[in-house]
Automatic annotation (TrEMBL):
InterPro entries: CRISPR-assoc_prot_Cse1. The lineage of its organism: Bacteria, Bacillati, Actinomycetota, Actinomycetes, Kitasatosporales. This is Type I-E CRISPR-associated protein Cse1/CasA. Residues 540-584 are annotated as: Disordered. It holds the Pfam family CRISPR_Cse1. Residues 540-549 have a biased composition (Low complexity). Transmembrane segments: none annotated. Residues 550-561 have a biased composition (Gly residues).
């Protein structure tokens, strides 16, 4: 549709993000409020955290605040400068003058340089689209997470500002309407150029007790190993305003990436709020080998890309798996330094440089080994060629910073091994469910999946508590033995329940042909015996210091069981994070 000029065109409207409330926050007393940029930095020590309409919006807002802080402080340059900020309650005081200096560029409705938008952006037909295009909780055709179903007719200026930040970070891919003046337009359209930058990340940041602590813990210094810093790095509001197309430039560093303009946006508004949007592709950016610039994601080596490009190593972001909670993917947060890098070459995974930075803080004594941090994991699972949002990933994992100690990997190794203990035990539980189904001639995959889901659910809260308690554990090996005993008891009880509920048909049993062609009688009693043997082998003897995670084969009595710990089928290959938000 074609719209006339915005109502109120005779007057100059303004929504100054430095002084007008628009950032949702959680106060120390648990109440919620909306604050301006100035207020957020002035009161950061009194606030728990930023909140958002979605976890992904919160992630994008935190990155925006970090870009402001890095640029206003022009650093920190090194760890000594960071330590001074950590000790200074008024460390963000320079931000106030910075926001005043750049105030004009933080005006959401500025006629020439609207915040993170392109003035005069238009399609060839002067179309203005529904706000559904930028509000991520209303995917096209299938609304969810929404109190506005099925359409978003209007947004307040505060809401619109948050969604503009979010759309640059997480907008879907797919074919988009072309913008006038963009040389990428073919037949009125621009063909898929990928999601917003953060949409390809397995987002990770560190939460402290207050927003001030959170910002400082994620405020990496320019001398951190593994990250590249450019003297010319600056955020979007200190660059020339974007045109409708792209100049194909690369990111210059953190401040640039945290505010990367992956889209071209123009809000249509009147004096009462925003009622439409023009949205197109902006600056595409390849995720390949950006581990030296982007600190807020783990990375994985890609053999496919290495073969395609003829070079090695090639790293891509390790995205989160909505089917797995954060503790099950703890290796992606702690691995990297733990992997052998001698003759084997580059590690297969790199942990987020944000956690590498926190590891340096504890290794050099700026944080106590007993200090607890929350690793916050946030991401998106897209569907149908990345053109729709399927799931939003949000989880927290409270862990002692001793797990990140660069010179003492013992605690980290035991934490990872403990998660593997749980994984093996739950696979054994799934095997029991499959054996009981075989004993009745029933389908096996459904019962096996249900048993595994129940097992991981039963171990979720205990593992999180065990991990937090590691801060006080004098002996990480004995602490893991305690965990193994708990896993054995918990999974053993679940197995008892499966056997008790198996029914008469399972106790009567039936003949079963194994993978080698042998025929055996299988009933609930034999399945129980196999289960106990597999569980003992999977967890070893919790009382023996040499047993944890032995990885020895687990052969069921009678020769009809897996030849390795856990399942009868191939092991799962998912290795990321997470599930719905869990408060610990």
């Amino acid at each position: 549709m074609t719209e006339p000029p915005d109502a109120g065109a005779g007057e100059t409207l303004s929504f100054d993000l430095t002084s007008r409330p628009w950032i949702p926050v959680l106060r120390g007393d648990g109440s919620q409020d909306e604050l301006s940029l100035r207020q957020v930095f002035a009161r950061a020590g009194e606030l728990q955290r930023v909140v958002g309409d979605l976890a992904t919006q919160e992630f994008a807002l935190v990155r925006l605040l970090l870009a402001v802080a890095h640029d206003a402080l022009d650093g920190p340059a090194d760890i000594e400068e960071w330590a001074e900020l950590w000790e200074d309650p008024d460390c963000f005081a320079p931000v106030q003058a910075y926001l005043e200096e750049h105030r004009e560029r933080f005006d959401l409705l500025h006629p020439l340089t609207p915040f993170l938008q392109t003035a005069g952006l238009r399609t060839a037909k002067d179309e203005v689209f529904s706000l559904n295009r930028i509000v991520a909780d209303v995917p096209a055709g299938e609304p969810f997470f929404s109190a506005r179903m099925p359409d978003v007719d209007r947004l307040t200026f505060a809401e619109a500002a948050r969604w503009v930040i979010h759309v640059h970070a997480y907008d879907t891919s797919g074919i988009k309407t072309g913008m006038a003046g963009d040389d990428r337009v073919k037949g009125g359209k621009v063909y898929p150029l990928g999601t917003g930058w953060a949409g390809g990340l397995g987002g990770v940041f560190v939460e402290g007790e207050t927003l001030r602590e959170t910002l400082l813990l994620n405020l990496v210094t320019a001398d951190i190993e593994g990250l590249e810093f450019s003297p010319g790095d600056r955020p979007a509001w200190r660059r020339e305003p974007c045109g409708s197309g792209s100049d194909g430039r690369s990111a210059t560093g953190l401040r640039d990436l945290y505010t990367w303009q992956s889209r071209r946006v123009r809000l249509h508004h009147d004096a009462d709020g925003v009622h439409g949007v023009v949205l197109g592709y902006g600056d595409p950016l390849a995720w390949r080998n950006m581990h030296g610039r982007e600190p807020m994601t783990p990375w994985r080596r890609s053999p496919v890309q290495e073969k395609k490009l003829g070079r090695s190593p090639v790293y891509l972001p390790l995205e989160h798996d909505p089917a797995r909670s954060a503790w099950r993917g703890i290796a992606s947060l702690l691995a990297d330094r733990l992997e052998e890098t001698g003759g084997a070459g580059a590690p297969s995974r790199l942990r987020p440089r944000i956690l590498e930075w926190v590891a340096r803080l504890v290794t050099e004594g700026h944080l106590s080994r007993r200090f607890l941090v929350r690793a916050r994991v946030v991401g998106v699972r897209y569907g149908t060629q990345q053109s729709v949002v399927d799931e939003v990933v949000d989880d927290r994992l409270v862990m002692p910073v001793v797990l990140l100690h660069g010179q003492d990997p013992t605690y980290a190794r035991q934490a990872i091994a403990a998660a593997e203990d749980a994984d093996r035990a739950v696979r054994v539980l799934g095997d029991l469910a499959a054996d009981l189904a075989r004993a009745t001639g029933s389908e096996q995959e459904g019962p096996k999946s249900a048993a595994r889901a129940e097992g991981f659910d039963a171990l979720d809260h205990p593992y999180r508590g065990w991990l937090s308690a590691m801060a006080q554990a004098p002996d990480p090996f004995e602490h893991r033995h305690t965990w193994q005993r708990q896993v054995r008891q918990t999974v053993g009880r679940l197995g008892d329940r499966l056997i008790a509920a198996a029914g008469d048909a399972a106790w009567e049993g039936r003949t079963h042909t194994d993978a080698k062609g042998g025929t055996h009688w299988l009933n609930a009693g034999l399945a129980d015996v196999w289960f106990r043997g597999r569980l003992a082998r999977a967890l070893g003897d919790p009382g023996s210091p040499s047993s944890p995670g032995s990885g020895e084969g687990v052969a069921a009595p009678g020769g009809d069981g897996p030849s390795e710990p856990g399942p009868t089928g191939p092991p799962e290959t998912d290795h990321a994070v997470t599930a719905p938000e869990v408060h610990v």
